Amino acid sequence: MNLTTIILAAGKGTRMRSELPKVLHKIAGRPLLRHVYDMSHSLENNRILIVYGHGAERVLDTLKDIDVAWFEQKQQLGTGHAVQQVADQIKDGDAVLILYGDVPLLKQSTVQKLLANVSENSLALLTVTLDNPKGYGRIVRNDAGWVTRIVEEKDATESEKKIREVNTGIMAVQGAQLKKWLGKLKNHNAQGEYYLTDIIEMAVSEQVAVVTSQPETEDEVLGVNDRNQLSHLERVYQNEQSKALMTQGVTLYDPARFDLRGSIDALGQDIEIDINVILEGRNRIGNNVRVGANCRIKDSVIEDNVEILPNCVIENAVIGQGSRIGPFARLRPETILAENVHIGNFVEIKKSTVADGSKINHLSYIGDSTVGSKVNIGAGTITCNYDGVNKFKTVIGDGAFIGSDTQLIAPVTIGNNATIGAGSTITRDSPENQLTLSRAKQISVSGWQRPVKKEN
Ligand code: UD1
Ligand code: CA
């Protein structure tokens, strides 16, 4: 059977108390709906339809790059009504999988198990048994143990409320049958809604078996309704990622204080990560890399034997083998460091390349620059790359020595092995192998008296 997945994502999410549509709230930096999409997208032969409603524009705008068809449910009249919005998209022979856009941690393996149970003669339902089933639809079974119907909390009798097996909302149904049953839904219930769950009773009355399966863990089927649940699922997700990294040989000083918001596309051996490190986007990390406490690293490549000292912020940078960064360094986008480069405290580098063995150890700003190899840049050096309108380049040749507190007014080129005297403002190209400096002459005034405080 071909697969059609319908993701229900129109609900308001009142309890989030947010301007942001619920399905755009994030886990590990990714919108909830994106998690559900990514999982569905990994299923074979799958066509994905999303029913959206609340915050329509923002949802479409945020997720415009994903490969799905969108259907607006203008009024949210229930889960059955939501699926009715796409009824004419469903092909008779399809297996139709229903997912919720606010249930982010569902695993592909659980869905595969569920899909194995759907056929012309059977409907597949994912259920879970909870200690506290409050709020959920309860699974009603007959004496022989077969599911006969689902009753919503608000419609349940006292004895039905005691049932702890609940509907996760996730199910798979054969296309022709789903369409037929959708057409028969009524809203005669406590909430005046069209309940998708009513198709269970219809299936049973037509001798279609309702086959249940369960997720590996309860967390997989938990939905996000408020920010407490959001933070719970964030920790569940981060904990899984931390475990996977440790299994792959990464030392995390404290897995509870590590966050991965994205992926590590290449992972070396003997990586050590201290506490409060955030890895965002897509990073690649080589062998023997050490990351100190409180670093945020995004979309970067970190080669072998790199040491990143505490409190660094690194984005879209390449850090070559054996380099040492920080503490307190900031590498901004398009920073490319070759091998054995040292970037020290309170140094900011932007859109610049730095060749092998160069050192920028203290309090400097290097932007729009090409720095050669074995260059030494003294404390407080600034490339003045911006005149308020345009940006200009600074080129520093191999072996150059830039004295402390130098301003390099771009565009400017410093020749190979040039030396710049400390405190210079360099406005013109400086020749190789020479000392260049620009400083006011130092004078001393003999016999000078300090002013004294006037009486009255
Ligand atoms: C639903 C189930 C309940 C189950 C529970 C699991 C029904 C009638 N009840 O209840 O048995 O235990 O989920 O969480 O199906 N949505 C729409 N349009 C609508 C209504 C809902 O898109 O008109 C979406 C929501 O955005 C959400 C999902 O469907 O992603 C579930 O809606 P929700 O209101 O949370 O369902 P419950 O009433 O909690
Ligand atoms: Ca819900």
Structure, briefly:
This protein has 456 residues and is of the alpha/beta class.
Can you tag this structure with a few keywords?
456 residues, alpha/beta, Spore Coat Polysaccharide Biosynthesis Protein SpsA, Chain A, UDP N-Acetylglucosamine Acyltransferase, domain 1, 2 domains, 14-stranded parallel beta sheet, eleven-stranded parallel beta sheet, 16% helix, elongated, binds uridine-diphosphate-N-acetylglucosamine, binds calcium ion
Describe what this molecule looks like in 3D.
β2 (26-27) and β3 form a beta hairpin. The radius of gyration is 31 Å and the shape is elongated. The chain folds into 2 domains: 3-221, Spore Coat Polysaccharide Biosynthesis Protein SpsA, Chain A; 227-436, Hexapeptide repeat proteins (UDP N-Acetylglucosamine Acyltransferase, domain 1, 3 Solenoid). The strands form 6 sheets. Strands 13, 15, 17, 18, 20, 21, 23, 24, 26, 27, 29, 30, 33 and 36 form a 14-stranded parallel beta sheet that branches. The longest helix has 21 residues, at 227-247. It contains 8 helices and 39 strands. It starts with a strand and ends in a 20-residue tail after the last strand. The chain is α/β, with parallel strands linked by helices. Bound molecules: uridine-diphosphate-N-acetylglucosamine (UD1) and calcium ion. Uridine-diphosphate-N-acetylglucosamine binds at residues 8-11, 51, 73, 76-79, 81-82, 100-102, 136-137, 150, 152, 166-169, 195-197, 223.
